[in-house]
Amino acid sequence: MLRRRITDLLGQRLTDYPAVALIGSRQSGKTTLARSLDGIYFDLEQPADRLRLDLGWDEAAASARLIILDEAQAAPEVFPRLRGAIDADRKRHGRFLLLGSVSPELTTQVSESLAGRLSIVELTPLLLPELDSPTALRRMWLRGGYPDGGVLGGAGYPVWQRDYLSLLVQRDLPNWGLPARGEAIRRLFGMLAARHGQVWNASEIGKGLGMSYHTVNDYLNYLEGAFLIRRLPAYHANIGKRLIKRPKVYWRDSGLLHALLNVEDPNHLLAQPWVGYSWEGFVVEQVLGALSSGGRPVDAYFLRTSDQREIDLIIRFGRELWAVEIKLTTQPVDADMRHLNATADLIGADKRILISQGRESVDGGSRMLCNLPDFLSHIAAA
Q1: pLDDT at 130
Q2: Is the pTM of the predicted complex or chain greater than 0.85?
Q3: What's the rounded Cα separation, in Å, for the pair 369 and 372?
């Protein structure tokens, strides 16, 4: 089994809290990771396991072993019991591990029943460093990071991704409360794919779907909560220039994006006019996923001025500000770094990073020219 980078963070949180919620999208590997911890496992989507937990609750709550509750949102009646068991012995840590794909029910139960008693950890699909292969980058960029989606080999892509999205449309999103018919969700998926990496325009999407922009924004909230979409907010600063204030929107998994856009293979991907947006979104997700798996709290933004100066990714670590430019080339030129520096000066960025597909990386302290694997290694070392 591949060792997930978040394993250390999960172990630390279990040491520090009575309960931990491991959340993330369907099929990202939550169950596999949890079962590797050798706890007592209950799948709460299964009636037999719900009954087994109900009848054996006192024994489970008293056990010295970790109790793993998969798909916890399927059994809301367990949350008051969890609160009672935790409050009866607040000094005992590492007792319960809850797994779930984010839904309104899970969010509500956690916030109302377990606030202050539980830590939340997000598991993304596979990250590039977890594969530890020199050939993994292009394969993961095309196929995405879902373990069963073809990134580990085999013929999963793109059939697996299309089936995955169909299941979300038919079952999960309606069960989580998304008030839209399947055909409307499919059309929204397609429109979001066509506008991947672009500034969000809810009114434009709404016109295409025959909906109000309020409704479209509500639907986007559901997709963001299901870990399908990332909304990257615009950076706000007083820099003497008009700034774009709407967020950018990305598909979080590049394999789902490419399946929606009917990309079959790497050569087909490179021939697309939007391939630069695809690469940008892939890098953004890998960087933010690596930071999250290391337990580093950051704020992430993009910047675009009215005169088209832009920084693809701005990362704030406490008082430190990093400006990241993403280029789909193996040979970035001096003008690329000059452009980045000039725009980064507007916001007083402490570090300027230009990420490309070049082979060599140069770390000059406040300036860094690198490829994606080297930058992810830099984050891990830091």
Answers
A1: 96
A2: yes
A3: 10
The CATH code that applies to domain 7-122 is 3.40.50.300
- What are the distances in angstroms from CA 22 to CA 16, 34, 128? 15, 9, 20
Res 146: pLDDT: 97
- CB-based contact 284:253 (threshold 8 Å): no
Of 210, 206, 174, 176, nearest in space to 192 by CA = 206
In this predicted structure, what is the pLDDT of residue 240?
64
pLDDT lower than 50: segments of the chain? none
CB 103 within 8 A of CB 72: no
Radius of gyration of the chain (CA): 22
Sequence spans of domains, the chain: 7-122, 128-381
Beta strand 118-122 pairing with 40-43? unpaired
> Across the beta sheet with 40-43, what order do the strands follow?
40-43, 67-70, 96-100, 19-23, 118-122
The reported pLDDT for the residue numbered 306 is: 84
